[in-house]
Sequence to fold (399 residues):
Amino acid sequence: MIRAYKFLLRPTVGQQQALTEMLRDHCSLYNGALQERRDAWRHVSGTTVRYGDQSAQLKEIRAFDPERQGRWSFSSQQATLRRLDKAFAAFFRRVTSGEKPGYPRFRGVNRFDTVDFPKDGDGCRWDSTPHDPVTRVRFQGVGHVKVNRHRPVAGTVKTISAKREGKRWYVVLTAEQARPDPLPATGSVVGIDMGIASFLADSSGGFVPSPRHGRKAAAKLEKAQQALSRCKRGSKRRRKAVETVARLHRKVRRQRLDHAHKTALGLVREHDLIAHEDLRIRSMVKAPAPKPDPDRPGAFLPNGAAAKAGLNRSISDAGWGVFLAILRAKAESAGRETIAVDPRNTSRTCPTCRHVAAENRPTQDTFHCTGCGHQAHADTVGAVNVLRAGLARRNARKG
Fold:
């Protein structure tokens, strides 16, 4: 199995400058390759330039510009060209499937923040000084950079990436390792229902409160964004204001990740099977379609966009997608099983008599079956139905 590790780098002033130049030159290569594809399509009768064509030109590019392109790893430059090729492949896939295409765009220097090295030892070297008590990673053109390795790396390092986040630099590794031994069986199964008032409810009647990190930081973010809007573009004050906004967003993201990891770890340790809703989060946070007014051309009727925007913010703040991805990864490593089930009517179906009706849920928190009179918390009922559907799906799979 493949596992990723992320460690903080401690570069010197000179190494930090070299890392910045490496990002700048790879960004220039990416934009130049994109411009070549655009020009070939527009001016040479729809000619398509592919990765192989552009990779074959790298030797000439490095010889023509040895100061900016020739000093960096050949493999990392190929990885940058592959990144562009993947962007075009995704673009054509969206065109074919009828989705919003999203043509690949040029990257600004501040928006190009990662350089990939496809193989350890080719342009980079993890733990380049094994006899030194301080772990270091070596990048071609940069040197041996100190690494704040807060945990050991198990397995064989496959790929290495240098990543910039604000003023900090990180190294991201992927390592191939043997599948770990599964955790001891507990004999427990659980269903979970994701929510906003509570982050999740389980089928045993337990609740995990919603941390609402984004809402707690909203006042500071609003103040920082207002200060940013008053700054003149290109000024030093604006760069500082941009960094302030980015720092606040990074803090919220780290808080969400920390909460997701701890919650998922608790579920994986306690239960052998975890059933959850198969949520289509991207569709859930879409803005409502406008409603033209038939009596007034050019005017529109109210469509509840303001209320839906508030709901969308709460869904995004909860971070369901990140949590479910972390839960599945941890369950796989621990030998646990996760099952995604259809979420339709899970909170409207009575777990006792199986009666389904919208009236069974008179309020957001209350479930009162109109058929048999069963009463419970609506999220707990949803979790019980999710578990039942998950067990049925597992039994059908085994049969």
